[in-house]
Structure formats: structure tokens, C-alpha cells
Specification:
With 479 residues, this protein is mostly helical. The protein has a single domain, classed as Up-down Bundle (Growth Hormone, Chain: A). It is built from 16 helices and no strands. Helix 3 crosses helix 4 and helix 7 runs antiparallel to helix 14. The longest helix is centred in the N-terminal third of the chain and has 45 residues. The radius of gyration is 23 Å and the shape is globular. The chain starts with a helix and ends in a 13-residue tail after the last helix. This is MFS transporter. One of its GO terms (molecular function) is transmembrane transporter activity. Keywords: Membrane, Transmembrane, Transmembrane helix. It is a multi-pass membrane protein. Pfam families: MFS_2.
Length: 479
């Protein structure tokens, strides 16, 4: 009887060698990794700086005027937050005017969380629905530039233009539309980029390659966060313009220096919607792929539930509260604190999983570490506790990201349709990220605070750990 895992791997190798050049040459592989790393850094910088700093501040600025205008236009949110805590503790008896402003603050808190949730949830849902279609379209693309390059290049260019438009959004409604299109464009670029790993890298090198490429997300997040936080007081939302320029340069360099094989001569099956939709169901019928998909969705659902409101938590959850400017500068410092553990974990986990021939134990350990980290701010809602939390979270993510990516490539139900199935894998992440802002906003509106946001996140990540258990992984021995 033929071992199905061995059969899948042999088909994987035959298919990828038929449609693209394997980077067996160390020089070509190194150049590919550098190009991938630069583009991944640029895209990650956009996600981190926009969703962590620029977008929350932009929504806050737009919503502030809806509540604090006229004589209230100059209100100090930081001072008002501390006043609310003193009143809640019974240390101060508020005046009628203070009571009125505290009521406005409460409404503003719920409104800005809901506004940010509307922007991020709408975009994530649209991307989630269309992401697999993007993968299939890149699989079916026939051009002299290959299957992936046209999507990577042109989507990045369109995304850069849209990012400039986001900067000048006059309202939350317009921001929702522009950011949704922007996020879609950059996902159109990043999904085919990820598929190039399945196309061009042999299986026994994927763990180490995904370790390197995952560093792009880490380094990009660091650069984007620190840059946006440090420069927000000087250039504010104009940081969007810098991001747009960098991603254009990175996309052009990747496509021109890592040329794909022409796909013009490749056969292409006739497209039909019914088999297309059935293909997703068939992918999720594969048990290992399905459980891994569910686990990823829960993992990102839990983690994103806390991160989406990071800026607001620094202003309203921890004690003492920070101002908007202080919070914007602190968010990237928190990210920086977690970088050393993340980089060490990324450098070790992917390569080690290649060496021992198993991925599952690494994902389990990462999920457990993430759950532990999310309990810390519940115990101590202070800034030092948040720094400890991100250090542990950094280690968890460093272990999780490269190995989880490699597992999805290992468990592709159909290697001939890597773009489709990796696009579906990205849906799991997008689903978690789409649901998280809505859940966080509802929790804040219902409970009037942020404590139970951490509780919800902890429960979700714990569930992600449990759903790894059914995965059956056969040890792979390196040649």
C-alpha cells in the first residue's frame, strides 16, 4: 500500500519542477530570499503601522469631533480618563459638568472602538471572501512573466495608490471603502508571493526558507511600528505616503530580480464555478488541512482580539493612562520589546522542524505560550505587565509563524493548486482578524471596559491549542 504522505510529496516535487524552476542553486535561493524578505518587510510595515497606529489614530481623530465640539473641543482625554477612574474609586465627587463630559467619554470610547472595528472587519471580510479566488486566478494565469509575477507587481502598484488615498479619507465611511480596497490589493500581491515558496523551494528547505521569509513580517512590523510611532508627532498620517513608496520599490525589485518561468505553454483546465467552489470543500475534507485551518483561525481570532485595540488600551485600560501621543510612541516600543525573542524563535523553529521532521509539536508549544501571555494583563493591567506579555507573545509567534506556514505547504490537498489552497489557508487568518475587531468592540460596549477582551482572547487561543491535537503528522526524514 502506498504511503499517502510520501505520494503527496512526490507529486509536489514533480508538479513544481514542471511549472517553475527549483532554487537548487544557493546563489539563486539567497537572492530569492532577499527579494522576498524586502517585499514582506514592506507589506508587513503597512499592516503594522496602519492597523496598529495610523488607523486607530485616524478613526479617533474623525470620531472625536462627533462628540467633543464647541466648548468641549479642547478636552484632554488623558485627564478625563484619570478623572473617571478617580470617580469610580470614590476618591472624587464629580461636578455636573464633569459628569456630562464623562458621559461623552463613555460614548466616545464605544464609538471609536466600533468605528475601528467597522473599518478593519469590513476589509477583512472582503479579503477573506476573495482571497481563495486570488489564489486560483494566479494558478491559472498564463503569461511570459509567469503565473505569480503579474499579480505581485500590479497589485502592489494599485495598493500604493490606494494607500495615498486612505491618507486623505474625510470620514469613517470613506475610510472603510478605501481601506478595504487597499487591503484587498496588498493581499492580491502577498498570496501569489507566498505561493512562490511552493513553486520554487524543495520541501526539505521550506522550513528554513519560511523562517527567513517570516522574518520579513517581524522586521517589517518593527520598522513600520517604530517609524509610525516615532514620526506620528511630526508628520502624522503622512506616514502612509512613505509606506506607499517603499512597497512599490520592493515589488519592482522582487519581480525583476527573481524572474519566473513563462507559463504561456502550460495547460489550463476550462474554468467552471461549480467545480471551483467544490474545490474548497474538497480541500477542507482533508483532515490534517481542515484541523490546521481551524486552529489558525482560532489562534488569530484570539490574538487579534487584543491587538486591534492596543492604542486604546494604553489610553484607557492600563494605569496610569497614556495620552494619544504617548500611546502612539509606546505601541512600537512594545513591539520592539518582543522582537529579540521572536527573531530567536523564528531562526530556530523552522530549521529545527526540518531537522526533526515534525511540525505539530512546535505549533502546540506556540499556542500554549500565547495563551499564557494573554493572561498577564488580566493579572496586572499596567504598562510593565504589557511589556512582559509581548516578550512571551513574541516567542510564541516566532515559533508559530514559520512552522505553521510550512505545515500548510506540507499538507496541501492538491499541490497542483497551491495558490488556491494557500489562499484558503490565508482565509483562516483573515477570518480570525475579521471577527476580532467586532468581538472586541462588542465586549467594550457591553462591559464598558477592556478587561474581558483579554478573557475572550485567552479562551480562543486555548481552543486553538486543542484543535491541533487531531492532526496526524508522519515524521519526514531529510534526504
Amino acid at each position: 500500500m502506498t504511503d499517502p504522505i510520501v505520494k503527496q510529496e512526490s507529486e509536489d516535487e514533480r508538479w513544481t519542477s514542471a511549472i517553475a524552476v527549483h532554487y537548487d542553486s544557493k546563489k539563486r535561493l539567497s537572492r530569492y530570499i532577499r527579494g522576498y524578505l524586502f517585499l514582506a518587510i514592506a507589506i508587513a510595515a503597512i499592516w503594522t503601522s496602519s492597523q496598529g497606529i495610523l488607523m486607530p489614530n485616524q478613526v479617533q481623530i474623525l470620531q472625536f469631533g462627533q462628540f467633543f465640539f464647541g466648548p468641549d473641543a479642547g478636552v484632554d482625554l488623558q485627564a478625563l480618563t484619570e478623572l473617571g477612574r478617580a470617580v469610580a474609586a470614590g476618591d472624587i465627587q464629580p461636578t455636573a459638568e464633569q459628569t456630562r463630559q464623562l458621559a461623552l467619554l463613555s460614548d466616545f470610547e464605544a464609538s471609536r472602538a466600533a468605528g475601528l472595528a467597522l473599518v478593519t472587519t469590513t476589509s477583512a471580510i472582503v479579503v477573506m471572501i476573495l482571497q481563495p479566488v486570488i489564489g486560483v486566478m494566479s494558478d491559472r494565469t498564463r503569461s511570459k512573466a509567469g503565473r505569480r509575477a503579474p499579480w505581485i507587481l500590479y497589485a502592489a502598484l494599485v495598493g500604493a495608490v490606494l494607500l495615498v488615498a486612505v491618507r486623505f479619507a474625510p470620514s469613517v465611511a470613506v475610510l472603510v471603502v478605501l481601506w478595504t480596497l487597499t487591503e484587498l490589493a496588498f493581499n492580491v500581491a502577498s498570496n501569489p508571493l507566498q505561493a512562490t515558496v511552493a513553486d520554487r523551494v524543495p520541501r526539505d528547505r521550506r522550513g528554513r526558507v519560511t523562517s527567513w521569509t517570516s522574518m520579513g513580517s517581524i522586521i517589517g512590523g518593527l520598522i513600520g511600528g517604530i517609524g509610525a510611532g516615532a514620526l506620528f508627532g511630526l508628520i502624522g498620517l503622512d506616514f502612509y505616503l512613505i509606506l506607499a513608496l517603499v512597497v512599490v520599490i520592493a515589488a519592482v525589485l522582487f519581480v525583476t530580480r527573481n524572474r519566473d518561468e513563462s507559463s504561456v505553454e502550460l495547460e489550463r483546465d476550462k474554468f467552471a464555478w461549480k467545480p471551483f467552489l467544490r474545490g474548497y470543500a474538497s480541500a477542507l475534507k482533508a483532515p490534517n488541512y481542515r484541523w490546521l485551518w481551524i486552529s489558525r483561525a482560532l489562534f488569530f481570532f484570539g490574538y487579534s482580539t487584543t491587538t486591534v485595540l492596543s492604542l486604546y488600551m494604553l489610553q484607557s485600560y492600563i494605569s496610569p493612562a497614556l495620552s494619544a501621543t504617548q500611546a502612539s510612541a509606546t505601541v512600537p516600543l512594545l513591539g520592539l520589546c518582543g522582537i529579540p525573542t521572536t527573531l530567536i524563535a523564528v531562526a530556530v523553529s523552522g530549521r529545527l522542524s526540518d531537522r526533526i521532521g515534525r511540525r505539530k509539536p512546535f505549533v502546540v508549544v506556540a499556542s500554549i505560550l500565547m495563551a499564557i501571555s494573554l493572561s498577564i494583563p488580566l493579572i496586572s493591567p499596567t504598562l510593565p505587565a504589557l511589556f512582559i506579555q509581548v516578550i512571551i507573545t513574541g516567542a510564541a509567534f516566532g515559533i508559530y509563524i514559520p512552522v505553521d506556514n510550512a505545515m500548510f505547504i506540507d499538507f496541501l490537498p492538491d499541490p497542483a493548486r497551491a495558490g488556491r489552497d494557500l489562499g484558503l489557508a490565508t482565509v483562516a487568518m483573515n477570518l480570525g482578524q475579521a471577527l476580532a475587531p467586532a468581538l472586541a468592540a462588542v465586549v467594550v460596549a457591553v462591559t464598558g471596559g477592556y478587561q474581558f477582551v483579554w478573557v475572550a482572547a485567552l479562551v480562543l487561543v486555548a481552543l486553538a491549542t486543542l484543535t491541533i491535537a487531531p492532526i496526524k503528522e508522519k515524521r519526514h526524514t531529510l534526504a
